[in-house]
Specification:
The complex is a heterodimer of chains A (266) and B (271). Chain A is α/β, with parallel strands linked by helices and 266 residues long. Chain A is built from 10 helices and 9 strands. In chain A, the strands form 2 sheets. In chain A, strands 5-6-7-3-8-9 form a 6-stranded mixed β-sheet, with helices on both faces. Chain A has a 3-stranded antiparallel β-sheet with strand order 2-1-4, covered by helices on one side. In chain A, helix 5 packs antiparallel against helix 6 and helix 6 packs parallel to helix 7. Chain A is globular. Chain B is mainly α. Chain B has one domain. Helices cover 74% and strands 0% of the residues of chain B. Chain B has 12 helices and no strands. In chain B, helix 2 packs antiparallel against helix 3 and helix 8 runs parallel beside helix 12. The radius of gyration of chain B is 20 Å and the shape is globular. The two termini of chain B are 38 Å apart. The chains are: A alpha/beta (266), B mainly alpha (271).
Chain lengths: 266, 271
Amino acid sequence: MISLRGIRKSFKVVKRGSGAKAALGALFRREYNIISALDGVSFDIPDGEIVGYIGPNGAGKSTSIKVMSGILVPDGGTCTVSGLTPWTDRKTLARRIGVVFGQRTQLWWDVPIADSFELLRDIYRVPRQDYIRARDRLVDALDIGSFINTPLRQVSLGQRMRAELAASLLHSPDVLFLDEPTIGLDAVSKLAVRQFIRTINEERGVTVLLTTHDMNDIEALTDRIILIGKGSILYDGAMSAVKSSRTAEGLPVEEIVAGLYKEHGL
Amino acid sequence: MRDLIRPYTSMFRVQFIGQLQYRAAAWAGIATQFFFGFVFVMMFTAFYRGGTAAPPMPLENLIAYQWLKQAFLVLIVLWSRDNDLDNQIISGHVAYSLCRPVDLYALWSARLAANRMARCSLRFAPVLIIASLLPAPYGLIPPPGIVAALLFALSLMLGMLVAVGLSMYIHTLTFITLNNTGLWLIGGALADFASGLLIPLPLMPDWLERALNLLPYRYMADVPFRVYSGDLSGAAAAGAMGIQLLWVAILFATGLLAFRAVLRRVVIQGG
């Protein structure tokens, strides 16, 4: 169960004009803009559900995930994930959640993927037997076996993302946050990743919150979407309802979402 | 207990093994170490020959100090740094480390200790062996006894921990500055001077030596290297090593608080 109530977070961003004069002025006096990244975000996700978290770039998707995983402390509001407040129970919560940031890597660059897995096992203090069972299952489901002994720097992006997914599930979390897990992947890898997300959700009841810009990911995985824009939740409901409410039935899903963004002035 | 420290020992092991890959850097390092070793030894020998006042430290002790400095440089020098860690902080990849069920300060300290010990393990033996074979007064004298040798080993480890504690402060500050160049440059230069790596503390004016005694830096290098030769022995050695231990405790305790304070206001930018 994930629950957010009125989560707010703003960032201070240095304001500076262009040109030499402004640059010189900034040495002595800095002006800041307060950017509201999250402006009272509330939603609930019951256990075992897959939710697509969508919105244009800069809408606050990643910021929300950072709040829910305990990396960022919000300015206000309450949040519980598996009954814990992320920023006060960061270490306890860490054992129950898995996180994949599609644009970052958690595996060690120079060492074989298998060694990274071993280190993660020790970091999460997973008992040997449980670890071997989880690893074998993941290696099999994600088809990692052929490159598990290759250093990370020598594998392709699609292979890397599959390894990242496996790495975030070695400690068998109940909740999985996926921040753009299909970014930059080819069709085959995308299908593999989607299939895998569906499997762990169905077989192990893992709750999944997924951000993506590829609406096909959402269509393939779930009907529930949460739309965020400019730090606020604009829509929380069924994707099918959005589709059927539109006159232009049969439009590609990208067009529908673009229309949705436009409607909300994003 | 074993389970409690498992993440930290595992990180230490992986990092130690990873550092052993850099063999070319080690060979180049050894060559540099000999070059600077000879420069410093010849310079101080010349000073002592030309000097008229009674020297504050016997020449053979001073030369032992120089060779030990070359042998254990990467273990105790502040600028023996972990670039990957800074890159993680600057690029935001640290986001992953922040959602692990471990104490990140302890995990990174283990990692820094592993870096220093692994780099040093590849370099110190050739320098010690060859320096011991050099003719007097240019060679490395053995320690006066087994007690001095053991105290030196202990003191050297404490010195390494002081260096790790100070390095963690620089990594903590990198969260704020998001650029590590200046911090290491200024910190490294200050530490090199204040720890006695450029000029041993006994050779400095009294007022300066007294002032530097109040800072943590001399406990990285000056103390262990003088314990080796017996320049610090008995009560003086025990007292200095007690202060080393105190500095380790102070640096890690305050460093942990500072690290936590910084993490509370950390902002990971970008998607």
